[in-house]
Design a protein that fits this description.
32% of the residues are buried. The termini are far apart. This protein has helices spanning 26-52, 58-77, 82-86, 90-103, 114-123, 125-134, 140-178. It has 179 residues and is mostly helical. It contains seven helices and no strands.
Length: 179
């Protein structure tokens, strides 16, 4: 169902899309960051809608699906999917992986699994518990639950964008040194 939404671009990589590598300049990096932030905001609204539903568990299932696709799309936009990283020159590939490890990021340059997303969602466990508790209060509780869902989803997405930006900035530095 979510794949049919008008702004949804497929997360599957094709041979032609692997040529999209790390943004080549600060301007391109800024444009990718803005585009990804808009993507996060749209998907956070969908997450908020699912959080407002009075059915327990639906919001977590929707969040996992939305987050997995979002993380894949953000990685692809920055040229940081595992397939795109493998296409880099060996020196740049090593620098990319060492930057990712140095940041301690669990999502940049990796295949996103449900288990990994569950770990991330449980890190924001207080928000999940409070979101479920507020749902018991009619209407106002659902509005608060939606607001909590929106802010938690947006925070995770924006944090991932900033991690990708840091990796891309380091790669720009490595590329400028090599030239």
């Amino acid at each position: 169902m979510l794949e049919r939404l008008p702004w949804r671009k497929p997360a599957k990589q094709t041979a032609g899309s692997l040529s999209v590598l790390i943004p080549a300049s600060e301007t391109a990096l800024h444009a990718v960051r803005l585009r990804c932030r808009q993507m996060v905001a749209k998907r956070a609204l969908l997450s908020a809608g699912a959080s407002a539903l009075p059915v327990m568990g639906v919001d977590i299932a929707v969040d996992i699906h939305l987050l997995s696709r979002l993380i894949e799309d953000i990685n692809a936009a920055f040229g940081l999917t595992p397939q795109q990283i493998e296409k880099l020159q060996p020196k740049l590939r090593v620098a990319t992986y060492s930057t990712i490890v140095g940041l301690g990021s669990t999502l940049v340059g990796r295949v996103v699994t449900r288990e990994l997303l569950l770990k991330i969602l449980t890190r924001s466990g207080v928000k999940i518990v409070s979101k479920n508790a507020t749902r018991l209060v009619p209407i106002a509780g659902q509005m608060v639950s939606a607001a909590i869902g929106f802010s938690a989803f947006r925070a995770i997405g924006n944090k991932h964008i900033e991690a990708c930006v840091e990796v891309a900035e380091q790669m720009l530095k490595v590329q400028s040194i090599d030239e």
